[in-house]
Task: structure prediction
Amino acid sequence: MKPINVGLAGIGTVGSGTWEVLSRNQDEIRRRAGRGIEITTVADLDTERARGLVGDRAKVVASAFELLDDPSIDVVVELIGGYGVAKDLVLKAIAAGKHVVTANKALLAVHGSEIFAAAQQRGVIVAFEAAVAGGIPIIKALREGLTANRVEWIAGIINGTTNFILSEMRDKGLPFDQVLAEAQRLGYAEADPTFDIEGVDAAHKATILASIAFGIPVQFDKAYVEGITRLQSEDIRYAEKLGYRIKLLGITRRRQEGGRTLGIELRVHPTLIPASRLIANVEGAMNAVWVKGDAVGHTMYYGKGAGSEPTASAVIADLVDVARAVTVDPDHRVPYLAFQSDALADVPVLPIDEVETAYYLRVRVADEPGVLADITRLLADARISIDAVLQREPAEGENATDLILLTHRSIEGRVQSAIQRIEALPTVLSSVSLIRLEDLN
Ligand code: HSE
Result:
């Protein structure tokens, strides 16, 4: 069978890994795909660098749009990133009848509905394993391996930069800025690291996971996004004392009430997790995705969420899928979002006020009689049940102290209004720091 011809748009970190792994493992890959997979053209603005990498084994062009005019190219691999040129390229590739493989989580989370609809209409494949958790085959696992299940929830460490920062802050007591600079030096961080530290990158990935898990359209605008920039090192220490670790989790959960799905929670925020959980021990830049399905129970997927060859591993898996599926009638291929496109559910993504979880609350209070009683009364009035209380011993001569409360699960709106009342107490000397807590059962 004739090889699949690939046009590679962008030969940076992931593109060069894709070139390298495809060359190194070409025999093995051919035996699996049933035909060769050949990068015949590379498009990159830095043509000199691209030529240095591929020599005369592929044509090099400066504009990715040149790939679209070449009828011999079957698949365009988009590794440009962002929403601008990448969106234009992907839509034009689809219109030209070319299959697309992309690692672009931002593009799919924001414009996925438009892209999948265009691909469906044109009968082409859009594959995106590399967009979520790099080398971990989580898209494949959810779309195919777990297809028998009603997914209950997914909780993932899906941003390596923030996991690296939190691990280093906890282990070495290093300040945030110093660790971020190290993450950038090591190449984990996005070009704009605010996407990492403000939780946006993780929210792009969680948005895609939510769609595949629950069969809903991609809706990044409905995700609740909170990064790690407001996290204080004392919270990391107090969490540890209480037997928890803090991780930036992407969480998506089906909320059931009286046997019906009330909505889908879709949120990214720092989260306390019991230190004994496997996911609490995922350290450094590693990623992990924990999925709870009704039939399978708990499953967890761990690996490198970024980097040249780990991400190339996912890009090439998609190319092999394209090589195999290209001859299959489009209506019988694995659907883009795991569910048939005419069977997506119209359940709402819940606003953060309606989310249900447990909470860690830290507040600075005057060290006087009755302060704890006043706070717990306000929580009781809002029907919020307390699970644990920790009071830091005030230092010598200090008449203020930190009070830490862990609550049982409660609706966020109730917790937020109780916090407003707590902050109005004259004995409360700071705003309340809130970190959500999940025990992931
Ligand atoms: N900046 C991302 C991370 C890279 O830190 O995980 C992979 O998407």
